[in-house]
Amino acid sequence: MNYSRRKFFVTSSTAAAAFVLAGCRGINPERLGGQADGFANVDQSGVVAQGPIGKNLPSSPILDEVRGRGFLRCSGTDTLPGFSQTNPVTGKLAGFDAGMAELFAKYLLGKPAVNFVKSGADTREAFLQNRTVDATISTYTITENRERIVNFAGPYLTVTSGVAVQLGETGIASSADLAGREVAVQPGAAEEALLREVPNAVPVRFEESSQCFAALQQQRVEAWVANTAIITSRAGTDSRTTVTDIRFGESPFGIGLPKGDDTYKTVATEFINTIAEDGTWQKLWDETAGLVDRTTNPEPPAIPMGR
């Protein structure tokens, strides 16, 4: 392969949309509808219907604007199985992050009214900075660089970095084996985690996780590094690829928020702690991402107020 170091691909592939259930590990096809696109049939509506509504919420610039508008503008993806994927029948987003967005809107407004705005790794901060959206909930890793320009409430979920390879690959047994190899990553947290762990790896950058996945399937790269939530939901459901046992680093996912409204951030933190304490968070995981990932078994968050 002749890719230059940190080359950035922006082409998409329809191959990333095909999820083959044969060979999946720890997945119950009956719960998922038994279809190739079965993960889009994940349904969080029952959990959201029972979710809490915030009481005596304070006034703040963003909170007042959201209340006046009557819906929450939230950015994310619509292609990540178990987390946020469009149901091809209903057209609604389904998954853990989609449910988090609906629960957050219900906590603020008393109803799960969300206006979804699709974003990628290179647009999330811009959408928050220019107030295109009120929040970003999209396996969005909290990093020091990002915290300089946006606020975060959370983490609401913490995972690690993982490695996916082609089925039958025997030369990558540890993170050290990625040295000198071309590895698909998204720019930002995934690329930073890879280079911290393996400075001599050769990142091949793609805007979307679906593009990383397609590149691995098509053998345009030798491995793919991302957080285990993304890796498991995509590569763990395809008969041509496999998720290795390699784990490193830590990816704390937060709700991205605009800077300048600390009251709004405090309310978002209270929301996360509330759904963790009353069991809503666990129910949401079990009905969405937990159907895809049977190995992570994450603990509900407990965030110190004032973080």
Topology:
Blueprint: E1 7-9, H1 45-49, H2 61-69, E2 72-76, E3 79-80, E4 84-86, E5 93-94, H3 96-109, E6 114-118, H4 124-129, E7 135-136, H5 144-147, E8 151-166, E9 182-185, H6 189-197, E10 202-206, H7 209-217, E11 223-227, H8 228-234, E12 241-257, H9 262-277, H10 280-287, H11 289-292
Structural notes for this entry:
With 307 residues, this protein is an alpha/beta fold. The chain is built from eleven helices and twelve strands. The protein has helices spanning 45-49, 61-69, 96-109, 124-129, 144-147, 189-197, 209-217, 228-234, 262-277, 280-287, 289-292; strands spanning 7-9, 72-76, 79-80, 84-86, 93-94, 114-118, 135-136, 151-166, 182-185, 202-206, 223-227, 241-257. The longest helix is centred in the last third of the chain and has 16 residues, at 262-277. The chain is globular and about 55 Å long. It starts with 6 loop residues before the first strand and ends in a 15-residue tail after the last helix. Keywords: Signal, Transport. InterPro entries: Bact_solute-bind_prot3, Solute-binding_3/MltF_N, TAT_signal. Residues 71-292 form the Solute-binding protein family 3/N-terminal domain. It comes from Tamaricihabitans halophyticus.
Structural class by SSE content: alpha/beta
Low confidence ranges: 1-38
* CATH superfamily grouping of the largest domain: Periplasmic binding protein-like II
- Main beta sheet, described? 6 strands, mixed
CA distance, first residue to last residue: 45 Å
Which strand order spans the largest sheet, edge to edge or round the barrel? 1-10-9-11-8-12
The tally of structural domains comes to 2
Any idea what the radius of gyration is?
19 Å
Written as H for each helix and E for each strand, in order along the chain, the element string is EHHEEEEHEHEHEEHEHEHEHHH
Question: Tell me, what's the shape?
Answer: globular
What is the CATH level 1 assignment of the largest domain? Alpha Beta
The CATH architecture term of the largest domain is: 3-Layer(aba) Sandwich
- Average pLDDT, rounded to a whole number, is 85
Question: Helix segment count?
Answer: 11
**CATH fold topology of the largest domain:** D-Maltodextrin-Binding Protein, domain 2
DSSP, total strands: 12
- Proportion of strand residues: 15-25%
What is the helix content?
25-40%
Protein name: Amino acid ABC transporter substrate-binding protein (PAAT family)
Keywords: Signal, Transport
Family: Belongs to the bacterial solute-binding protein 3 family.
Pfam family, one: SBP_bac_3
